[in-house]
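Q: Sequence in, structure out?
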Amino acid sequence: MAAHSKLEILKVATKLGLTSFGGPVAHLGYFREEYVRKRGWLDERSYADLVALCQFLPGPASSKVGIGIGLMRGGLLGAVLAWIGFTLPSVIALVVFAYLLHGWDLQGAGWIHGLKLAAVAIVTQAVWGMGKSLTPDRSRATIAILTAIITLVWSTAFTQIAAIAAAGLVGLFLHKSTADTEQQQDTQQLPLSKGVGSVLLLLFIVLLLGLPFLRSLFPHMWGLAVFDSFYRAGALVFGGGHVVLPLLEQEVVPSGWMTPDQFLAGYGAVQAVPGPLFTFAAYLGTLIHGWLGALIATIAIFTPAFLLTLGALPFWNTLRRLPKVKQALWGINAAVVGILLAALYDPVWTSAVRTPGDFSLALLLFGALMFWKLPPWIVVVLAAAGGTLLGLLT
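A: Exactly. Output:
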């Protein structure tokens, strides 16, 4: 891969890392706008397939999608650069929070609320665009609507997986007549073989089972203990995002690494920065053992995402070409739209839109994205300013 291509991957991912507010669902909207619509690095169907795969795997969904896109674009180094660019800005910000801003009450800040309203606009745009492409007929629209309802009524990460699996089965039955006639060419070539993928998946299991054993053998090695705790948190969380918070609290508070108040203060801080919520590990690691603790905790919590994504993609790239799998993806892609639709309501809408002023600002931001075609980073700045103004007026 040419040097300019490497720099392009890092540059684009860093821009996303600096501007992607609103959590994993909003990140998928940012990714789609940047990687699919603007740059054409992959098509809508390939993007939806990648999102569907990442929904099946534990860990941070948006980071896994970014890693996968980086791999497709630039090989292993591209995957690493895509992760670094998307993750590093928020890691630095949270380490600074831990050192300098600890104790500030950021949760009620008006500009943070404005960023949540930006997430409403971003997710709405993503649902709109993906819905038009992936649910263009009554059958797929029905799958999306039912998936959204099921996901909202039974709100668990495993419900999402079950809904995706059920939609795949529906696709096998409903899409038989056209599955074999669709011959869309897949232009995505992966530089990893199935053998390498198998090794990475095996390494994931070995670390998951072996780290607790090593920790018991060397109880005084704080670095090993930190890596084990954060690796397990990253490996066992389905759904990503806020789901990881209770697991992390069980790892860091009972062990005496920090107090509950310190933990909750960090949760307030993580709402103020862009990028993946899993970078909360950088804040916690800093409290445990300074910048070195932040480095270990951050690498540990994202390692499962790397191993699973890079390990599964070589098999996924082959499977998705098979007629039966294409039939299943017909329904799965519609289910992904439904999951995004459900997430648009909860937690995105329910945590942000509380007053007519909130709805008005969210509507303006949506118009800025959809119809006035403003860049997302400008919309984020406007959202922060608008949230601050709303805070002053109420």
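The chain has a mean pLDDT of 85.
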